[in-house]
Design goal:
Layout: H1 15-18, E1 24-30, E2 33-39, E3 42-44, E4 49-53, H2 59-67, E5 69-74, H3 80-87, H4 96-99, E6 104-105, E7 114-115, E8 120-131, E9 136-147, E10 157-161, E11 164-167
Antiparallel strand pairs: 1-2, 1-5, 3-4, 4-9, 5-8, 6-7, 8-9, 10-11
Length: 185
Amino acid sequence: MPTRRKQALPVDRARTLLEPGPVVLLSTAHRGERGIMTLGWHMMLGYDLIGTYLWQANRSHALAKRSRECVINLPTDDLLDTVVGIGNCSGRDGDKFERFGLTALDADEVDAPLIGECHANFECRLHETRITADYPLFVWRIVRAHVAPRPRWPRTVHYRGDGRFMIAGPTRSRRALFRPDMLDQ
């Protein structure tokens, strides 16, 4: 493989290439209030731990902090306009489930609602927080997971910055190249 020629990239643009994964919808609930936010800044920290950056100005930050639980919902490309719309408004202006015509389903383990239209839903309880003045990091433990049986590899949405999204493409297996003891099942 030939060496690739490079050019300078402003550091503040690195995120356009390094975003951690699919955009998700984080749903929360506390004392009769519920919320949904669009979230692109999250990361897997283990097979059942997810770190999320929830900005303190977001209403969902307060709901998640008070309830100590959430549902991380995985939308697919057919929900892209809804994902953008949710990210462009505040829950302080009304219920986003109603505004966007989404179905709130009861979860099994937490009080936060599942979003019925999403491909997968991960019920989470707060494992720990690392909230500093600049970095409100929540670490969640997945306590229950739900996934649609098809498609196995959904067309998820990935944010590239500047209002641009990438849709997950074809999946290519390289399983034969891995040692069996190194594969996660």
